[in-house]
Amino acid sequence: MTLHTPKSILKTLGGESIRDAAELRARLVPELRRLLDEGHEEAQAKLQESQNGFICARYLCERMDELVRIVHDAVVQHLYPAANPSAGERLAVVATGGYGRGTLAPGSDVDLLFLLPYKQTAWSESVVEAMLYVFWDLKLKVGHATRSVEECLREAHADMTIRTSLLEARFLFGDRELFDNLEKRFDQEIVATSAAEFVDAKLKERDARVTKAGASRYLVEPNVKDGKGGLRDLNTLFWIAKYVYRVKEPKELVKARLFTQAEFNLFSRCEEFLWRVRCHMHFATGRAEERLTFDLQRTIAERIGFAPRGGLSAVERFMKAYFLIAKDVGDLTAIVCAELEARQTKRRPMLDRMFGRFRRRSGGALVSEGFIIDNNRLNVENEEAFERDPVNLIRLFWLADRRNLAIHPDATRLATRSLRLIGHNLRTDPEANKLFLEIITSKNAPEVVLRRMNEAGVLGRFVPDFGRIVAMMQFNMYHHYTVDEHLIRSVGVLTEIEAGQLGSEHPLANQIFPSIRNRRALYVAVFLHDIAKGRPEDHSEAGAVIARKLGPRFGLTEAETETVAWLVEHHLLMSNTAQSRDLSDPATIKSFAEVVQTMERLKLLLVLTIADIKAVGPGTWTGWKGQLLRNLYQETEVILGGGAVDLARSERVRLAQERLRSELPDWTDAEFEAFAARHTPGYWLKTDETRRAKQARLLREAEKGGRTVTTAYETDQFRGVTELTILSPDHPRLLAIVTGACAAAGGNIVDAQIFTTTDGMALDTIVLSRAFDRDEDELRRAERVAKAIERALKGEVKIADLVDGKRPAKERSKAFHVPPEVNIDNSLSSRQTVIEISGLDRPGLLYDLTTALGKLNLNIASAHIVTFGEKAVDVFYVTDLTGTKITHAGRQATITRTLLEVFKAEESEPLHRRSA
């Protein structure tokens, strides 16, 4: 490729005079645009060929250096020549910030400092202004400042961002003496006297940035630039080292004894990989995109050249590589930042967020054989501590937990360097396993300690099965964290429950925890429940096999090991049953109870399920899920306690009617008997007392007002849901109309309870997930959804048109593929056929499914809607028009084929969000 060169571009301007700045830009900008475009094409070709981020970033920076010089020379030669410049007609053009580091991504900002002498003239202002107009015409994102040396120093004193920018200043061209003066005075007057202040500010800035971008480096849509473990962490590390140790280049970090040569090599590998990913992202999107979204992950994996292997897809392998790099970045920055913090600010760090009170110890005090207190951190006594006794690699973290101490960065670094000591002998050592089990089951801060072990590399080496899932992501929208981070967070949630925290979120779990006998088994099961993710076989079954292997090694009894294996194998059972089955159906409870068998297992499974769901990510746990789990627990408790949920149905109906009668003292006996006669036994058995009373009043008011279609709504902040009650003449497409109206109005349905009165009226309860925190906002939304339903039921709007208006644009590609599946089961309910449908979620899906079921002449008794990120799992309890199950094989095949067609008809549609 023949690139435009500075000489060729300046030559095109010719020797003749140019009248004004507008003419200069008109002639110069098109040539520069071609230079930029050619440079980007060449940079992208180099990136694809070399797969080296530095080569691309440095090449782009070199091309930008050329462009800035061309603009300057053109302006000075043709607009503001200075044949005999005065002392005030001097100018140094300086690259600052990221540009000053000598690397640019395709969409990066260009930060420039126009450095002027103390005594300025109109010439310099005119030159700078003319240059900026050219940059702006080129649509470059230019951050610029025009200052004298004195102004730079004054601003740097007052503003840490400007100080950081000047720290990376790079001379481009112009008056070298001006730049040298700035560099010398900046070093002597600011850097030399404010190291502690700078370190403190940069560490606080990093904390704030990471919190904003996402506190965990294991978020599955990471920010490559500003996220934890991203490029900015490496920048921060170098800024601090450069400021404190006055180094010029990253390789000098070894000379400063902050890094060993091996650690610096790791630093360089991390930086190159992150630059590679970032440049690919900018090229792929055509903009400065810094978040590695699901849409981008598959594209970048392909551009870099990852392929499927070992049970992982190409994108999962790429993301595992990314998270391992992010982990390495975290390790490097944590070691250096913590060490510098200790040297500069002398703060007293504490290990645990909850148990922060610990008596201050003098430095160097021996706390255990081989370990000392060093500046209020746990440290090794000498560098032979792990060589002398490899068990100390586990004891280090055990002591940190027991003494509630942060671990000194020197100890963490030595542990990472000593991973070769963790082999078969240490893994089978009874003392090491005893200490490890005590870490997992600690009442102090097991989450914090396990994370420290993981970051040091000790956890994955000591438990190789855990090592397999370190940095492993699951390519879906449901899980917010990598598998290892999810398991560690699960242990943290379990600790919170045992400590009695957040009782308002899970009151039953807090209540029953003290009565749990198998506490150790529960903690180990939570730690292991996803240990087999990423394997070809079912991860629950494979996890149970691993649990049976690890239990005895950790020191669990045979009974404890079997409990752990059972919990791991069935860790999804309670969640799936609660969310996708009809809990008012006796067959559901019987089937669940047959698997659980004992009250102890029921307690363990409830607590494990809560810990698992809450550790998935922010917003995954809701009060509605908690209520469903409590309902399942309480119904199962009846059977396991010797009761029978399907006995004496007539007696239960009678008691329900008596309780409702007492709630309606203003009703006459005749009114109540007429109301009771309108409902089937199923209504009395399935609805709770509060809902029955409200619905009785709703029906009475509608009847008095002569309304055949009416709605009511209320919100429940604790459960995180809003309930809509709908009264309407029954007909086969009723639920389809309701779901369509909800979709059009932005209502996300999570459950539906459907009844038909003996006189042909439908009385349905639709449960929507809550959208707003404030009740008044949520009630306004509920009113909007309710009105949309009423209008649709009255035929005032065409529901299909409303739903179509909410569908996503077909031309947008979707990131996920979820093969659709339909399962028809007659064993899960004694009265209805259960149809479970799963597939890729999309707006209007529930409307399309209920419409299809209506056309198949199926009566829907209840619907249970679950969304796992991009995957929808919708379960319908149905009968045919005669009220019987669907048993004929041909009829079942027709149902399956019709429902699968719903997904095929829309398989080109992208996923935005769940609307119905």
From TrEMBL:
Domain remark in the UniProt entry: Has four distinct domains: an N-terminal nucleotidyltransferase (NT) domain responsible for UTase activity, a central HD domain that encodes UR activity, and two C-terminal ACT domains that seem to have a role in glutamine sensing.
Entry's Gene Ontology BP terms: regulation of nitrogen utilization
Gene: glnD
Domain spans labelled HD: 483-605
Function: Modifies, by uridylylation and deuridylylation, the PII regulatory proteins (GlnB and homologs), in response to the nitrogen status of the cell that GlnD senses through the glutamine level. Under low glutamine levels, catalyzes the conversion of the PII proteins and UTP to PII-UMP and PPi, while under higher glutamine levels, GlnD hydrolyzes PII-UMP to PII and UMP (deuridylylation). Thus, controls uridylylation state and activity of the PII proteins, and plays an important role in the regulation of nitrogen metabolism.
Record SUPFAM superfamilies: ACT-like (SSF55021), Nucleotidyltransferase (SSF81301), Nucleotidyltransferase substrate binding subunit/domain (SSF81593), Poly A polymerase C-terminal region-like (SSF81891)
HAMAP family, A to Z: PII_uridylyl_transf
Family of the protein in this entry: Belongs to the GlnD family.
Keywords per UniProt: Hydrolase, Magnesium, Multifunctional enzyme, Nucleotidyltransferase, Repeat, Transferase
GO terms, molecular function: [protein-PII] uridylyltransferase activity; phosphoric diester hydrolase activity
Cofactor requirements of the protein: Mg(2+)
Top-level division of the source organism's lineage: Bacteria
Coiled-coil ranges (or none): none
Protein name, entry field: Bifunctional uridylyltransferase/uridylyl-removing enzyme
Regulation: Uridylyltransferase (UTase) activity is inhibited by glutamine, while glutamine activates uridylyl-removing (UR) activity.
Region (Uridylyltransferase): 1-366
UniProt cross-references to InterPro entries, sorted A to Z: ACT-like_dom_sf, ACT_dom, HD/PDEase_dom, HD_domain, NT_sf, PII_UdlTrfase/GS_AdlTrfase, Polymerase_NTP_transf_dom, UTase/UR
Domain ACT, first and last residues per copy: 723-805, 834-910
Catalytic activities: [protein-PII]-L-tyrosine + UTP = [protein-PII]-uridylyl-L-tyrosine + diphosphate; [protein-PII]-uridylyl-L-tyrosine + H2O = [protein-PII]-L-tyrosine + UMP + H(+)
Entry's EC annotation: 2.7.7.59, 3.1.4.-
Gene3D superfamilies, sorted: 3.30.70.260, Beta Polymerase, domain 2, cca-adding enzyme, domain 2
